[in-house]
Amino acid sequence: AKKSKDNPYHDYYVWRDGEEDVYPNDMNSVFGGPAWEWVPELGQYYFHQFSVKQPDLNWENPKVRRELYDMILWWMEKGAGGFRLDVIDQIAKEPDLKITNNGPKLHEFLRELSRETFQKGDMIIVGEAWGATPEIAKKYSNPDGSEFSMVFQFEHIMLDQEEGKEKWDTIPLNMVKLKKCLAKWQNTLYQTGWNSLFMNNHDLPRIVSRWGNDGKYRKESAKMLATMLHGMQG
């Protein structure tokens, strides 16, 4: 894709013309630094929301979507029973407008993805969506199965993050806010969607260390948090 603008894989990614050190805009990567990487041979920047080694795919290109569908179908034929779709709410990005999450064509792309792949089998599909709200989550995990089986959202996990600061700049957890947040998601998705219940994953520290006590009261903390988690619908 970097060899030439005429390379058949060039349009598999998101490119913008420009000048060195004059970025298309001021968007930053999640991993730090500009979200644009200069390629002097082409006089262009490519867009990467995460690592510079992870250029974003151009979902506007039907060839990209077709290749992705074929890969998924290959795994389904091998017997895969489900897929976890990482940061899937960012596939319909519009970097010129600084839109990353929940782009205008997001649900159009997701429904096509489901029709072309997941609906051809009995699959469990989990979508990770950092930018989801309860109303958006109802579209993701609606009972007709046109998008996901269930959705990961992170609103409750972000309650101890200091607003405007980095990921690990935390503040004490407000228990009332936690209760209201969990209740909101439970009530909004009741009988219309499927919460994916969790408190930590591979990107986050263990919840006993984060919200509990991993020393003297390790067991009690773990039981308390597990009771809260498994007492909810999802």
UniProtKB/TrEMBL annotation:
GO molecular function (one): alpha-amylase activity
Pfam families: Alpha-amylase
Domain of life according to the entry: Bacteria
GO BP terms, alphabetized: oligosaccharide catabolic process
Keywords, alphabetical: Glycosidase, Hydrolase
InterPro entries linked: GH (IPR017853), GH13_cat_dom (IPR006047), O16G_dom_2 (IPR045857)
Ranges for domain Glycosyl hydrolase family 13 catalytic: 1-234
PANTHER family cross-referenced by the UniProt entry: ALPHA-AMYLASE FAMILY MEMBER, NEUTRAL AND BASIC AMINO ACID TRANSPORT PROTEIN RBAT
Family: Belongs to the glycosyl hydrolase 13 family.
Name of protein: Glucohydrolase
Organism (species): Dorea longicatena
